[in-house]
Structures are given as structure tokens and as C-alpha cells.
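Handout, section B. The chain below has 236 residues.
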Amino acid sequence: MTTPRFTLRADVNGTWTGVERIRLDAGEVDGAIDAVRAFMRTTGTTIASWWLSELSTPSDVEERLLASGLRRIESDYLLDGLLLTRAPPPAQPGVKARPVASAAEFVAATEAQYEAFATPAEQRRDADALTEQYELHRTSDVDVHYAAWVDGRLAGCARAMFSSRGVFMAGGSTLPWARGRGAYRALVRARWDDAAARGTPALAVSAGSMSAPILLRLGFESVCRFRRIEDVLSSS
């Protein structure tokens, strides 16, 4: 959903709402928070990420959000906006990545992502809920989930959101046992290949301290910086 004040995106009954392109007047911040929370209740999401940049308004929007009860997660606060417009290195031998092809693969990939990110138990969804999510989105050619296998063993997963200008990448993760073996690199290349096949050879991503060094080695360039502020919807 896009308005003059912001753009909102979420998976129905997922976890996350993204609040982007924030252009508020000074008197609109509290109303915007209420509107985002209403959107979260409608979509069934529980956590909102407010993505702030040097273009966000008003100039003290971060301070106003924090004063209204949103929070800063220091380990996931400063993120680089990275862009790739040339082909990254191919996958290494023994490593394969592609879109998930069944509910079982989607469940396994999501559970691997939970493990890789050490997702708290209260934020994890069970297999039935994940299967329902897969069935809801499996015919989409915009939002695509990927998995990577190292020597035939599920090693990592990622997500791609396709547009007319390229692909926004998210959720790239590798299980601890497979780190350093090329799964993350293969996931990047798989999404590049699919973007190029659609005639939109460009990848964009917001990257923290763990993924940014890998992506820079693969050819990404830093084009901006984000500050992420989080709002957790009360269950009461």
C-alpha cells in the first residue's frame, strides 16, 4: 500500500510489515504510527520495521518514533543499501540454489532461516501455518522464496521481490554448519539469473554487518544507509 506519507508492505499472516519511503509532516507521526498498527492488524503481522534514511521526514522522525514507544535494536539498526548491476560469481561446485518447489521445501527452508537467525520461539510459525502461507503465495511471480543445498543437504534460504526495475533481496541466511561453503553466494546468483531472465538485471538489498562484507566481495556497491526502528504490536 502506497500513500503520500509512506509505503507499507507485508505478507498476510506473516510476521513483518515494512514501512518505507517515509515522508511525514511534524504533526503526522502519531497518526502514522496508528495507521501502520491498523495495517498490521489487518494483515495479521506483528512487527513493523520503519526504514529511515536521510530523505525521511520530519528531520527528527527517529526521535519522535522512539518517544512513542518504538525501539532500536542496536545489532540490526544501521544497514547499508547495496546495489548490483553486473553478474556475480557463479555457484561453486556441489552447491545449488533455486526457488522452493513445494510446501515441504518452503517449511524446511523457513525453519532453517529461523535457526540461522536464532529467531525467538514466539516469532516462529508452525508447519501448518507455514504451509498455509506457501499455498497463499505459491503462484506469485513477484514474491519468490529460494533455498540452497550443499552436497544435497539444505543449507540456506532467501527471498526475492521482483519489480520492473530489478529485484529486492531479503532473508538471505545460511545454517551454521554450511557457512563458508558457498550457499549464500549461490542464493545471490540464483536471484540474479532470474532477474536477468526477466530483463531486469539488478539486485538491491539492505545489509547489516554480517552480510555486507560478503555482498561487497560479490560486486555490490553501497548507495545509501538505512536506520531501522522496530514496532512490536501488542497482543492485548
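Note. Residues 7-79+226-232 form one domain. Compare this with the example in section A.
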